[in-house]
Amino acid sequence: xxxxxxxxxxxxxxxxxxxxxxxxxxxxxxxxxxxxxxxxxxxxxxxxxxxxxxxxxxxxxxxxxxxxxxxxxxxxxxxxxxxxxxxxxxxxxxxxxxxxxxxxxxxxxxxxxxxxxxxxxxxxxxxxxxxxxxxxxxxxxxxxxxxxxxxxxxxxxxxxxxxxxxxxxxxxxxxxxxxxxxxxxxxxxxxxxxxxxxxxxxxxxxxxxxxxxxxxxxxxxxxxxxxxxxxxxxxxxxxxxxxxxxxxxxxxxxxxxxxxxxxxxxxxxxxxxx
Length: 274
Known about the structure:
Layout: E1 5-6, H1 7-14, H2 18-27, E2 34-35, E3 42-44, H3 49-60, H4 65-72, H5 77-109, E4 118-123, E5 126-136, H6 140-158, E6 167-170, H7 173-176, E7 179-187, E8 198-202, E9 205-213, H8 219-232, E10 241-247, E11 259-265
Antiparallel strand pairs: 1-3, 2-3, 4-9, 5-7, 5-8, 6-7, 6-10, 9-11, 10-11
């Protein structure tokens, strides 16, 4: 035992395959304690067992080899913990994405989905406190959160009372090209101007609207139902889609209570169901 463990013995102890150990040696991730110059036989020390087990756990979590190398070569415990935490947060985001996809699939596969109520509605012209910028579709959520927080601060500082729920206008290019103009806003009679926040006048518009109920994981399905209905009715979309957040994460953590009104501008003017 003084000469160390053979690669087979080390494999049995750590549950890392011989093939994996050879690959980790070649990549510099886990080098043997010694390699015989004549035979090429690898020998490992008992002190390397915890490192091997750590690598095993990280590979089970699909951490890239380059990141594992960073972790095992970092002597500072705080820095090492930060690297591990970053990977775990990425895994949590992937898990959330998987859960969202499963939820959407279940809704799509429902043989008798609940009916979606749709109506044509006229919206009067009004003023809003807004922020508007060109945004990449991958950045929508982060940009929305930062922009809406800035609008909230501007309203508080100016002591302006909102006259309606928060909302947003999303150009078609955000969905077709992956990059387009986003405008988020909160209605107010006398909107302030502060930083990126400016007063914006929204023109009167006639929109086909429906309400999405629940979390936004499967909101694209509600979009599809509304778009399909408009097409069947021979109505053309005449501008960016509007989302009005009647109840959302700003109001409650219970996503079953969230309500998002989706509205596409159309050319007909009616208030009756369509």
